[in-house]
Amino acid sequence: MSDSSLSRRAFIKQTGASSVLAGAVASTSFAQRVPDPPGKKLGWAIVGLGNLAINQILPAFAKSEKSKVTAFVSGHRDKADKLAARYGVPAKNIYNYQNYDELKNNPDVDVIYIVLPNSMHAEYTIRGAQAGKHILTEKPMASTPKDCEEMIAACKKAGKKLMVAYRCRYEPFNQNLIKIAQDKELLGPIRVVVSDHGFNIGDPKQWRLNKALAGGGSLMDIGLYALQATRYCTGEEPTEISAMEYTDRSDIRFKEVEDMINFQLRFPSGALGQCTSSYGYAGQNRIRVIGTKGWVELEPATGYTGARLRMKIGPNLSERDIRPMDHFAAEMDHLSECVMDNKEPLTPGEEGLRDLKYMMAIYEAARTGKTVKV
Ligand code: NAD
Questions:
Q1: How many structural domains compose the chain?
Q2: N or C, fewer C-beta in 10 Å, the chain?
Q3: pLDDT tens for residues 270-311?
């Protein structure tokens, strides 16, 4: 029987996870989380009412404690009206891409969440900051490092916060993974972080396959999760990157952007990252951190729900029970809290810029066949 075919209960039973280990890593598993009484909530405008906004972000406001949706920016008034009726957004707070800048006169809005195609993040972040609002922008932060730098500068000039929506940093499975990965007593020093992220992309007409709108292919979209994982698990920045790409250019989906791109990263401690990214293979979504004494893995790792954390230290296999949390509610509340308490977000613009620079190095390494120092 393969590991993945074991149910969690059967897995723990069959492997006989030791109580010592379970106690060491799972003591907070079922801690009760009592919600705070209703308090102040900041007002959020959502820019771009596509799949992510409709199916994930808007429903997440019901679970937010510090954030409420108060405005929409959309090119489709009919869609915006319907969603406004559902979420209690007043008609006066529905904007389009032309009158977006008028948000500056609207005190109902404190924060703007940009959920547009990648290459549009920069313009709407800069205009949003100029309108005097704090910004959460979806990942990737932009399609070039230069755009990221301009976004950071615009928010600094306006005195506003800028955060990149790296939702996995705000949810407990990835947070536990990081804690265990960096516990040298438990895992020993990290030797390798292996991460595979990809899926078979559908509609060949979608913006993700359009270079001008997406900035790149699988790497900019899904491979970014693998890159992030190597960095947050090690807690280090890479010094060298190598990469190899394969794209079937006769596939109608891949006329402009890459399909498969595998990359390796070297970290100062000697740890290595080993990543795959694809728009053309069966769904892969996992992170495994291998230390000298054992390993810890998440699979699925970065989906919206269903993550599982397992580990093997010496002979002991175990799975950790973790109470899941809505990723989007958690990330939005983090930024609302940073605004209220004047703190720097965990994933500021500078973090998005670093990833864009590494992704450019991955493309360069794949193109030249040479290791790139970063
Ligand atoms: P989508 O295509 O479903 O939605 C994009 C929205 O932008 C649509 O409402 C569309 O009308 C609007 N739009 C405005 N101008 C456009 C143009 N010129 N071309 C195409 N659309 C235009 O996309 P999505 O899946 O919601 O992704 C939006 C952003 O969110 C992307 O940056 C993506 O990388 C990111 N995203 C993040 C996650 C995550 O887990 N954090 C998941 C999915 C998407």
A1: 2
A2: N
A3: 999 999 999 999 999 999 999 999 999 999 999 999 999 999
